[in-house]
Design a protein that fits this description.
mainly alpha, 128 residues, rod-shaped, 0% strand, 3 helices
């Protein structure tokens, strides 16, 4: 039975709009989740590869420093050769630490940018 003033059609349309809005919201949440998973996976892989490179690089540096210390020890006492190499290492570590802090401060946080943009576009479309 149809109402004379069309309230039934308006109610059905309102229900349909609410269902579509709910579906859009679910899809936007799913998009944000997938985007964050992709970024986290990429970040994790990068960190793992970086740690592996750091371990092998550290081993190479240790052997190079042992070689340098042995070479310096041919000219000066062993304790002085070790002190020279230790001082150089501390200077390099300090410079690397300052550079690392600068890079970390400039880093981009893992924010689901596409999902946020889609949510803004959806909100604008609903307002119209």
């Amino acid at each position: 039975m149809q109402a004379r003033n069309g309230n039934r059609h308006v109610g059905a349309a309102a229900k349909q709009v609410a269902e579509h809005a709910s579906a859009l919201t679910r899809l936007e949440v799913e998009l944000a989740s997938l985007e964050l998973k992709k970024k986290a996976t990429s970040l994790g892989l990068g960190v793992g590869l970086g740690l592996g490179a750091a371990v092998f690089g550290l081993l190479g540096v240790v052997f190079a420093l042992a070689t340098a210390t042995a070479a310096i020890a041919l000219v000066v006492s062993v304790w002085l050769a070790l002190l020279i190499v230790t001082g150089a290492l501390l200077i390099v570590a300090g410079v690397a630490g300052v550079l690392a802090v600068g890079r970390l401060r400039r880093g981009t946080p893992p924010v689901p940018e596409k999902a946020i943009e889609e949510a803004k576009l959806t909100a604008e479309a609903i307002k119209r």
